[in-house]
Write the structure tokens for this entry.
Amino acid sequence: MSQTGTGPIPQGTEEPSYELWEPLDPDVAGVFRDVPAEDRAYRERAREFVQTEVRPVIAGIWDRAEYPLDLAKRLGELDLLRDGVDVPGFPEQSLLAASLTTMELARGDGSVATIVGVQGGLALRSVAWCGSEAQRERWLAPLARGTELGAFALTEPTHGSDSVSLETRAETRPGGFVLNGHKKWIGSGSVGQLAVVWARGDDGQVQGFLVPQDAPGYRATTIEGKVSLRAIWQAHIELDGVEVGEGARMPGANSFKDTARVLQATRLGVAWAALGQATAVYESAVHYARQRVQFGRPLAASQIVQARLAEMLSQLTTLQTLLMQLTRAEERGELSGPGASLGKFTATRTARDMARNARDLLGGNGILLENRVARHFADIEALHTYEGTETVQALIIGRDITGISAFA
Ligand SMILES: Cc1cc2nc3c(=O)[nH]c(=O)nc-3n(C[C@H](O)[C@H](O)[C@H](O)COP(=O)(O)OP(=O)(O)OC[C@H]3O[C@@H](n4cnc5c(N)ncnc54)[C@H](O)[C@@H]3O)c2cc1C
């Protein structure tokens, strides 16, 4: 009950503040014990960034739904923005280093990890894998440094899970192309410099184009009113007769298979982000259970609370083990599409369940932004949906199990 207007708060009712951010580094199975030093260094840098630069400001930024462009730039300065993509002049960054970076960033905040997913995972990777020499020369370094922001524009208002059926057109004209269509949910699509636009060419195939965000006819509106990932902006984009030169078409993007190759590479990254969020809610739940006193003893002294924490640790350990194994398989070039789907499917489901449990364990404090868990509770919803919903991942796995496609 509120004490407002009732005079001084009686002694003994003043609530202590809770320390919920201290890393606990749960690693029961020793999953991270043998991580090579150079990969560990990326993880530590990401953690330091989170603790010193994200933690003090993120609840307010999230509440005000601001896009922290300064943090995006810092990610570039710290070489945390590349998602493991090779860029000339930059040190080698292994897949494991990129995965651990994503996990640590998401442990701090889901939007911050998503900034990396969009910039490095999708935009930079598309240019690196599908772009011409000239396109790579122009865009790779600025995108990796975060001095220019890129977007990956695939989803359309009427084509989400079936983005393979996209309707944006790229008509060939003398000297280039004219793009017409609509895109929805495009991260950094209204605040960046470049958009990687996927459109259907004259041959009916999906092709990739590098479109400057200030091109005439490119109109981006930031989507407002989100209850998830409020600290990164997505845009609704209208492409209204956008003219680009021949040099805008990526020569390595000739069908949806090329788009899917980029998407599959980032799918496991989303799973690692979910693991970061799962770690955050677990840590906060443990801290809170120790600090919160009810019925004259800490919540942690209750058998039921201990059982709940044990359940969460079990889920977390299982997820760590799975994702490490899948990442090792990918490093060996052995990870299949359904394998990546299994990682994302398991990770976002698990993190979502753990966030729900932790939110409840914090009682009313669990819905306050200042207490960390509510932000992750809301943010995990978007991860559960983007880059292929839970159901779409299940359909990919199911097709692999049965040999029968159940999509249509
Ligand atoms: C925060 C956020 C950021 C995003 N960022 C980007 C971005 O940067 N670039 C980009 O291109 N896109 C982006 N997306 C789009 C994202 O990839 C899509 O939202 C996602 O693919 C799902 O599409 P949809 O939202 O249209 O849902 P729908 O496809 O309409 O799905 C609605 C529901 O139907 C289910 N469903 C769909 N098909 C089937 C089926 N065959 N059988 C059974 N169930 C089915 C789904 O699982 C889901 O539960 C983003 C989305 C969000 C929310």
